[in-house]
Amino acid sequence: MKRKLLNNLFAAVIISCATSAFSETPHWDHGEQATWWSLQDTSQTPPLSFPFAECGVGQHQSPVDLASAKIDQTQVNPMEILYSIDTPDFFNTGHAVQVNTSTHYTGKLKIGEESFPLTQFHFHEPSEHVVGATTFPAELHYVHVKSDGRLAVLAVAINVGEENATFQTILDNTPPDSGGKKQNSGLQIDPAALLPKLEQPIKYYTLAGSLTTPPCSEGVQWYILPQVITISDAQLTQLKSFYTNNNRLPQNINGRSILTAQ
């Protein structure tokens, strides 16, 4: 009973961190990412040194240059993306445009026999993962958290092209002020409407990594779709009106391999 309680508390903390990228203690921004590891939390007495140390010393950091990694074609678990319509909250995290799923939302990412509930999805401009010299205009991250605290992130690159109506709804309902939330709007969003057209079985690339924002915690399993989605040039401009250059630069691959299906 005690172990179950501790596990539930641990999971609650992890989900809270994954659901909100907004943090005031200590303050950070993407412009100072080279020194995230050295920041101090001065809200503590005495100040807490290096709460984001993993950003500097971690060996499995994200994002990465996908062209720099060895691609291993092997047997991987089948993927199912089981998202359904939700009435979410729209959140300006202070670092990104984000959509938080509702409390009883049942959408999930299924890898083999394991299911990872979708807790939020957010956007970076430009992309965080790159392919050699190619950086995409933006990138979408679906963040999933199991009850035991394990995280799985599904990444989708974004190009400029045809407008996406669901993305427009998100942009139009995200509060302009840092930390702002639009709750109980009654608006329905289908997270699957932001996905590319997928063939079965779903092809993906996967590698071990980390959160791409402080505290840069490792133990995150990344799943990257090879297909891109599109938004219009006007939508990209509107996204930039919230945040621009809110991307972490590629990190050292450190011998990691990227796995994909044979």
Automatic annotation (TrEMBL):
Catalytic activity: hydrogencarbonate + H(+) = CO2 + H2O
Listed Pfam families: Carb_anhydrase
CDD domains, sorted: alpha_CA_prokaryotic_like
Residues annotated as signal peptide: 1-23
Top-rank taxon: Bacteria
SUPFAM superfamilies reported in the protein's UniProt record: Carbonic anhydrase (SSF51069)
Keywords, ordered alphabetically: Lyase, Metal-binding, Signal, Zinc
Enzyme class: lyase
Residue ranges of domain Alpha-carbonic anhydrase in the record: 26-262
InterPro entries according to UniProt: Alpha_CA_prokaryot-like, CA_dom, CA_dom_sf, Carbonic_anhydrase_a-class
Entry's Gene Ontology molecular function annotations: carbonate dehydratase activity; zinc ion binding
Gene3D superfamilies reported in the protein's UniProt record: Alpha carbonic anhydrase (3.10.200.10)
Enzyme Commission number, as recorded: 4.2.1.1
Family from the record: Belongs to the alpha-carbonic anhydrase family.
The name this protein goes by in its record: carbonic anhydrase
Originating organism: Nitrosomonas communis
Lineage, top ranks: Bacteria, Pseudomonadati, Pseudomonadota, Betaproteobacteria, Nitrosomonadales
